[in-house]
Amino acid sequence: MRRDLMAECGHYDRWREDLELTLALGCHHLRYGPPYYRTHLGPGRNDWSFTDEVLPVMRDMGITPILDLCHFGVPDWIGDFQNADWPRYFAEYARAFAERYPWIRLFTPVNEMYITAEFSGYYGWWNERLASHAGFVGALKNVTRASLEAMLTILEVRPDALFIHAESSEHTHANHPDLTSEAEMFNERRFLTLDLICGKRISAGMFAYLRENGMTEAEYARFRSVDLVEHFILGHDYYVTNEHLLVSPEIRKAAGEVFGYAPVALAYHERYRLPIMHTETNLVDRGVTKRPNGFGKRGRISICCVRWACRSAA
Question: Biological process GO terms, please (predicted)?
Answer without folding.
Answer: carbohydrate metabolic process
